[in-house]
Amino acid sequence: MKKALVYIENGYEAAAIDLLEVVRQVGQNCAFETCALCLGGNGTAPEGYFDRVIRVVQPSPEWHDVLSITNAIEELHERDDFDCIVILATPMGRLLAPRLAMRLRVGLVADVTDIRLQDGEALMVRPAFDGKILAGIVSTGSKPLMMSVRPGVFSYKGARDKATDKADFIPMRASPRQVELLEATKKKTFSDIRDCEVLISGGGGIIKGFDQIQPLADELRGMVSASRRAVDNQIAPRSIQVGQSGKMVSPKLYLALGIHGSMQHFEGLRDVKHIVCANTDRYAPICSQADIVVEGDALEFVNRLLARIRRGKESKG
Amino acid sequence: MKIICLAKFIPDVDHFVYDYERNVLVRENMDLVLNPDDACALAYALALKKNRQDVEVEVLSMAPLSLLPNLKELLRLGADRGVLISDAFFSGSDTYATSCIIARYLADAQYDVILSGTHALDGDTEHVPVQVAELLGLDHMAYIVRFDDDSFLNGTCVFESEFDNANARFRVRLPCVLGVLAESRYKLPFVRYENLDLNVDDRVTVVTNEELGFSHEEVGIAGSLTKVASTWQPQMKKKEQVIVGNDDEGIETVFQFLKKEGYMP
Prior knowledge:
The complex is a heterodimer of chains A (317) and B (265).
Chain A: E1 3-8, H1 13-17, H2 20-26, E2 33-39, E3 52-56, H3 66-80, E4 84-88, H4 93-104, E5 108-109, E6 114-118, E7 121-128, E8 133-139, E9 145-149, E10 165-169, E11 179-186, E12 198-202, H5 213-219, E13 223-226, H6 228-232, E14 253-257, H7 263-267, E15 274-279, E16 292-295, H8 298-316
Parallel strand pairs in A: 1-2, 1-4, 2-3, 3-10, 4-9, 5-9, 12-13, 12-14, 14-15, 15-16
Antiparallel strand pairs in A: 6-7, 7-8
Chain B: E1 2-6, E2 9-11, E3 18-19, E4 24-25, E5 32-34, H1 36-51, E6 56-62, H2 68-76, E7 81-85, H3 95-107, E8 113-117, H4 127-136, E9 140-147, E10 156-162, E11 166-173, E12 177-180, E13 204-207, H5 209-212, H6 220-223, E14 226-232, E15 242-245, H7 248-260
Parallel strand pairs in B: 1-6, 1-8, 6-7, 7-13, 8-12, 9-12
Antiparallel strand pairs in B: 2-5, 3-4, 9-10, 10-11
């Protein structure tokens, strides 16, 4: 039976379990035995979802110690000979995946958004060149097939009642640690656009007035998010970026202000109930997916809508 | 103390040319800009050089020869040396093959630290600096938003990295590879007026496969471990929609829609 390995990063357990859907799609013709690799510590082992859960112990590498995690997976691979390795593209996952791929001398496809089977071979699909095309990529070297997948792109709805075989794994090859963690500070008042039901999102068409979006978001009890164009222009932080290279979001209402709507941007919108967009170009791709298109300047629209909402409140009050 | 800065020139994503027959990006004669994260890494190195006399900065890029003028511009900003790895032989290399090529040059180079960007805006894979570090047997950390002032003074570097929901301070022993974020806001200086036409030719080296000695199977499309098997244009289903103007009537339509769907608090 073919074997697949999923790396479970502490704090991202649920998102990593969803990677089982990737494994399921790659193994449509021949199901994989699934194996989860966890680090010791406080993380909860994803029992019931995987055939095997392996915990690296004695010592368990720290979360930021990519070199030791790579060593551990390499050793495990030498023993278990995996056919497929999938890594969640968290910030640390994005450092781990390329190092591991180079160590194993295999190709790596980053930020896979879909799997297609072509003549029995798995095509790893990702948008390329600002989303103007979708590329189906194959790995030409030896196994394992390796890819990274952003959180929230796939969703696993399969079995969760497997008899999971649990085991510890003690790596033999320790490496001297170079990167030493001095201190970590959790960001206070951290709220995530992924948890919000209303997103007011600004793009290239509202760069000049980006700071004026917030009052509208406040009125609609939503959060401000941004397209990559806004982030590239350094008027919005990467943490609120929607899209393939940002976050996958599923709000009920997505208000797209001056956003063109590249394929990468749509990759970030999952199960959005309503889209309203304001754009000077009614033929921008985002408009084709909207419930209402307001043809015109996005900033002007923000101010007019804000005035209308406030007027409504006054007449009510 | 020597810093090598990895610099990637990226296509202006609005004007790229794609070779649909070979399934590769045409990088010749394109309008390219320095990747923003890489620019911040170089900016930090140049700022450090300005304050400390023992700092030497080399900029290393892999690109077609047509990018030589772009590299020379970076020398006019204050970098000491520029190296352009360039050979038609390397064309079509994926991130794996590219990392092998850059690492082979670096294996014989002198340096205390290698700085790069974290993200590359065009592909956004972040593979190359990590894979170069792996090939050189070096440690690596990225997402750096700030270096401590006394970094690089005693064989170590202390810096702060920004993650999704936390910031972390790390200390790392040199040599290593470090990735900077554009959020660090380190800014490249402007070219000084007297340096506008400065001749920097004697400080630029072009490295070809003659020096690196790869075989045909190791690099380019043949040496790549990933291959684009097919490409297609995304198809989207068109949704039924209302198109309104940005006037009182249009605003009212949106307002009533938001109210009807329960979005008005």
